[in-house]
Write a structure and sequence with these properties.
2 copies of one chain form a homodimer.
Chain A: E1 3-6, E2 10-16, E3 19-26, H1 28-36, E4 42-49, H2 54-62, E5 66-73, E6 79-83, E7 92-97, E8 117-120, H3 125-132, E9 140-144, H4 147-152, H5 154-161, E10 166-170, H6 171-178, H7 183-192, E11 197-201, E12 207-210, E13 215-218, H8 232-247, H9 252-270, H10 283-297
Parallel strand pairs in A: 1-4, 1-8, 2-6, 4-5, 8-9, 9-10, 10-11
Antiparallel strand pairs in A: 2-3, 6-7, 11-12, 12-13
Helix pairs in contact in A: 1-8, 3-5, 6-7, 8-9, 9-10
Chain lengths: ~300, ~300
């Protein structure tokens, strides 16, 4: 089953304590797609400017990602410039040039409209709602958001939450959304807002998954070398939704495994800038690291 | 096999966003003992003042903790006053009255000297070394420390590290000790300093365990209600060392299980002030929560 993803495609300029990269391929839809394509076909809807290098489109197509919904508009591609400190989290935004992304009004191509799995990456919740009005009988709708929308479009966000199955959200956003400091309480509150499944992403500290009846906790797979954490959350979502779409089952066991696949995909994202590593891996690489993670985390309770 | 613990006994005054408690039983040796006694006999060496309530000594003895090495000195008991914010970590110290603890010069009673398992809770590394000079043929020596000693008694600390088997240390201390931001790199550096096993405690984010050949990662067991995180690290150590002493085996599997027992014991510590909960639990309570944790964290990698 194929996944439809709507989000940003960007040219990022990123500085970390270990290096710098200029105008590299980025954006939520890119990281999500490059991750999910390892599991199922992916249909991308996004917008870029005329400056967007053709090689990137070719790269996505060579990966098997359907770019029919990638519109090239008059103007420049969304550009984000950020800088990370030694903790490799909470980057400082140096500048944001929305460019053509400012007028992003996603049109879902006819051939995409029967996509069964939908991922609404972090964009204006009004746009996320408009996307849902264009799809027919989806099986599963997941979405992400950020503090900006929580603060500025809360009403629209709450309307959206009534229509979705899965919310992926980071730790601090879940606290801001619910005004709960404790993450279990925050998750319980979010489940009352509509989503049936809440995934709280804690970055290098792992992930918490909640449904009304089940909970799952996994640590992150700590990497000795992190080059650039940009896109880790969307890459997690790509592995998570990708795995669910591949197995076509949504139950306690598949959600646990999906969390682990998401966790492992994120490790490939942070190993290099842009898709330096994530864009080059095979199923064998993924399965190998999944097994390493299993070894790293497993324990028996009876001696 | 019994454990010998050397550390502080305190009367703590603690404020959290949810409550306040004055002059309650605390200190590293207390939390460690109350945790480890659930696994094996515990011999405590510490000092208190004449103001130390007799009921506390009775309480420890009723738990089966050997208090022969608890010396009552002229003066007042060590008193720490601290305040936690909503994140329930990094408390602000309001005041510290060392009192009799300032002259703590632990004498190990003869009956304790053949203890096979030793835990040197966070105190001056010079004192930790003097304790080791008094014990005969220990099977396993574990120790804890803090940023103050890393900054002010580095030389003595490094001397101590040559003599120990296990170091339990928190995330930020491991970074400060090694000047490494990445925890894998920090752990590798610490293993080069002497300890054969390094346990990096990440509080509500779980624990990382390293030996030269193995690694283990476990998330924390998130609690919906945290009353007071004081003593969680020492309680973890009590469960960790207690489990190892009980099973008498130190191998990859027992170290993993020990980490889980430590994790679970810490959840009882944070549920109430002082030993409000930790002091009242039975083996059944512990095993029940161990099973819950197993359910919370388990996943299969083959569908």
């Amino acid at each position: 089953m194929s996944i439809l993803v709507i989000g940003s495609v960007a040219l990022d300029t990123i500085k970390t304590p270990l290096g710098k990269a200029e105008r590299i391929l980025g954006g939520s839809a890119i990281y999500f797609s490059a991750s999910a394509i390892n599991f199922v076909p992916v249909n991308i809807v996004a917008t870029v400017g005329e400056d967007f290098p053709k090689k990137h489109i070719k790269f996505l197509q060579n990966k098997g990602i359907n770019t029919q919904g990638l519109s090239i508009e008059n103007g420049k591609t969304f550009h984000w410039e950020g800088e990370y400190g030694w903790d490799f989290s909470n980057p400082k935004t140096i500048r944001t040039d929305l460019n053509v992304f400012a007028n992003f009004n996603p049109k879902i191509p006819k051939s995409y409209q029967s996509s069964k799995y939908i991922f609404l990456a972090n964009i204006d919740p009004e746009i996320q709602i408009r996307v849902l009005e264009q799809v027919k009988n989806p099986k599963l709708i997941a979405c992400d958001t950020m503090n900006y929308w929580i603060e500025n479009k809360r009403k629209e966000l709450l309307k959206l939450f009534k229509k979705i199955d899965i919310l992926t959200i980071n730790e601090s956003e879940s606290r801001e959304l619910t005004n709960q400091k404790n993450l279990i309480k925050a998750a319980k509150d979010i489940l009352r807002l509509g989503p049936k499944i809440v995934v709280i992403k804690k970055g290098e500290h792992g992930v918490l998954l909640f449904t009304k009846t089940h909970r799952f906790t996994a640590p992150a797979y700590l990497m000795e070398t992190v080059s650039d954490p940009t896109g880790a959350g969307d890459t997690f979502a790509g592995g998570f939704i990708g795995y669910l779409a591949k197995t076509k089952r949504i139950n306690q066991n598949s959600l646990r495994r999906a969390s682990i696949y998401g966790t492992i995909m994120a490790t490939f994202a942070v190993e290099d800038f842009s898709l330096g590593k994530l864009g080059k891996i095979s199923t064998i690489d993924i399965e190998k690291r999944i097994k390493q993670f299993k070894r790293l985390t497993s324990f028996k309770i009876k001696p």
